[in-house]
UniProtKB/TrEMBL annotation:
GO BP annotations, alphabetical order: cholesterol metabolic process
Any matching Pfam family: GMC_oxred_C
Co-factor requirement: FAD
Pathway note: Steroid metabolism; cholesterol degradation
Similarity section: Belongs to the GMC oxidoreductase family.
Keywords for this protein: Cholesterol metabolism, FAD, Flavoprotein, Isomerase, Lipid metabolism, Oxidoreductase, Steroid metabolism, Sterol metabolism
Domain named Glucose-methanol-choline oxidoreductase C-terminal: residues: 456-505
Classification via InterPro entries: Cholesterol_Oxidase, FAD/NAD-bd_sf, GMC_OxRtase_C
Protein name, per record: Cholesterol oxidase
Top-level taxon in the UniProt lineage: Bacteria
Record organism: Amycolatopsis australiensis
């Protein structure tokens, strides 16, 4: 009986799923399957609307040759990067030596998208950024909300939509008593001790990782994921990505067709009403194997801050959607991301076993404009290093624009615009270094380079709420076109962004379903 069930489920997994058909006419098409796209698809389907969910990345439901779906952070392979022949790891060096390596070109899970002045890391696949992120699921402090989304009523967010998002995402907190004893959080306890000795509050940070599973990882009773260094290229166990939360609920509605390896290139008004959407089907080398044209009554842009902004800017400039507002492409920020490491004394080891899932941060937002996650450096050996990703109140905002010469979209972010972030992060780490008699690491981002100031994990903006759209994400200039992802948020959330992206999407789709369908 068990054998038959196993064979049956294998056969089901191997059956190709139906994908969007050329010439289809659909009521709603959602571009991208991250947080915004998943919320839109679920709520529309629950309201009785048939949805096509179109995703340029892979499904990430089939194990590779090693029996695992996702590659380990310490041994990147073709699964790790989106259409690259060499890795581009956020931490590029160790002890000053470059650690990137050649890999086969493949539609892998992490995109390191390079603009002139910044590298923007993004997840690619069904589940978007939830596949690659650290799962840190932080609701901003209410007193900061007015600066994050000034046109949104905080009452409805904190009473209804943040709780709905936290429940839907499966957010939980580490057990503080277990934290105090677990080997894998030695590095975070060092971070707490040093923060508190310098007078900074240390706060536990909620996460969507299954904390009970992590306790079993530490006890050695289950296969390890967070404790095996898995994170950037996916977690094989433990993490409640959208694959474990919104996406199964979407499947259960029976109303959503998910098309992985399908990339939307054009949206333009259709002659008989609705919109003509052109979709390219890709193979795992990134080659286009088919081009499909479908008609959708309504289109939801949920391709992420960068993906949505690039599409909208291109469609406006090339005449496909000329009436989009002039605010399209503007108000983009990096959530003030900047990284650094510190070298501890020999009597302050951070541990050779480190959970890849951060669970605490140093809050100096009000006084110094920085909230610093105490991050792991899971190398498997003792490094005496403390490592941090800071989110800072960086005021700089960039703009996407169409480049007719290259026929692509540029972003005008300048490397020097990270200086305010460095200054704000220094408000924490200069003080800790002075107190501890320690120094910054200079070997993690190059040779003699302290700051990881070339990147962001948290792109936000480009179709800002109340500017490029109305106060619910309806794009100015067209009926039936919506932005419903991180592009709506004007550049900064004061904490990690995906809970706010999810909560805002929950708020907006509820209004849109009530009034536009
Ligand atoms: P996103 O999740 O990026 O989904 C957009 C989807 O659209 C992607 O799957 C794309 O492949 C797809 N797409 C793009 N263009 C097209 C197209 N033309 N056609 C079809 N599909 C397309 O958007 N945030 C936190 O809150 N906590 C964390 O701990 C955290 N850690 C992170 C760590 C890393 C390494 C990274 C990269 C990000 C992290 N983030 C974290 C950020 C978070 O994942 C991100 O804000 C959200 O995923 C953004 O959600 P969206 O729905 O806007």
């Amino acid at each position: 009986m068990l054998a038959a069930a196993t064979v049956g489920s294998r056969a089901a997994a191997a059956t190709p799923q139906a994908v969007i058909a050329d010439g289809a006419r659909v009521p709603a098409l959602v571009i991208g399957s991250g947080y915004g796209g998943s919320v839109a698809a679920l709520r529309l389907a629950q309201a009785g609307v048939d949805v096509q969910l179109v995703e340029m990345g892979m499904a990430w439901d089939t194990p590779g040759a090693d029996g695992k779906i996702f590659a380990n952070t310490t041994s990147p392979d073709q699964r790790s990067f989106w259409l690259r022949t060499r890795t581009k790891q956020p931490l590029s060096n160790f002890l000053g030596f470059p650690i990137d390596k050649d890999i086969p070109r493949y539609t892998g899970i992490l995109d390191a998208e390079e603009f002139g002045g910044i590298v923007v890391y993004q997840g690619r696949g069904v589940g978007g950024g939830s596949l690659v992120n650290g799962g840190m699921a932080v609701t901003p402090k209410r007193e900061n909300f007015g600066a994050i989304l000034p046109t949104v009523d905080p009452g409805e967010m904190y009473d209804t939509y943040y709780p709905r998002a936290n429940a839907g995402l499966g957010v939980g907190l580490v057990d503080p008593a277990w934290f105090d004893s677990a080997d894998c959080y030695q590095y975070a306890r060092v971070g707490r001790k040093q923060a508190q000795r310098s007078g900074f509050p240390f706060v536990f940070v909620p996460d969507v990782y299954d904390w009970a599973y992590m306790q079993q990882e530490q006890a050695g009773t289950v296969p390890r994921s967070a404790l095996a260094g898995e994170i950037l290229y996916g977690n094989n166990y433990g993490k409640k990505s959208l694959q474990k939360t919104y996406l199964p609920r979407i499947a259960a509605t029976g109303r959503v067709t998910v098309s992985p390896l399908h990339r939307v290139t054009t949206v333009t008004p259709a002659s008989g009403g609705g919109y003509t959407v052109v979709v390219e089907q890709l193979d795992t080398s990134g080659a286009v194997t088919a081009t499909k044209s479908v008609t959708a009554d309504k289109v939801f842009f949920a391709a992420g801050s960068v993906g949505t902004s690039k599409l909208l800017v291109k469609l406006k400039a090339t005449g496909a959607l000329p009436n989009l507002g002039d605010e399209v492409g503007k108000g983009w920020g990096d959530n003030g991301n900047v990284m650094c490491g510190r070298a501890n004394h020999i009597w302050d080891p951070t541990g050779s076993l480190q959970s890849s899932i951060p669970c605490g941060g140093i809050d100096n937002w009000a006084a110094g404009g920085a909230f610093a996650e105490v991050a792991p450096l899971p190398t498997g050996i003792e490094t005496w290093a403390s490592f941090y990703l800071s989110i800072t109140k960086n005021p700089n905002r960039a703009q996407f624009s169409w480049n007719p010469a290259t026929r692509s979209v540029d972003l005008n972010w300048q490397p020097a615009w990270k200086q305010p972030s460095i200054d704000m992060a220094k408000s924490i780490f200069d003080r800790i270094n002075a107190k501890e008699g320690t120094i910054y690491r200079t070997d993690l981002f190059g040779t003699y380079k302290i700051w990881g100031d070339h990147l962001t994990y948290h792109p936000l903006g480009g179709a800002v709420l109340g500017k490029a759209t109305d106060n619910y994400g309806r794009l100015a200039g067209y009926q039936g076109l919506y932005a419903i992802d991180g592009s709506l948020i004007p550049g900064n959330t004061s904490v990690n962004p995906f809970v706010t992206i999810t909560a805002l999407a929950e708020r907006n789709i509820e209004k849109i379903i009530a009034t536009d369908f």
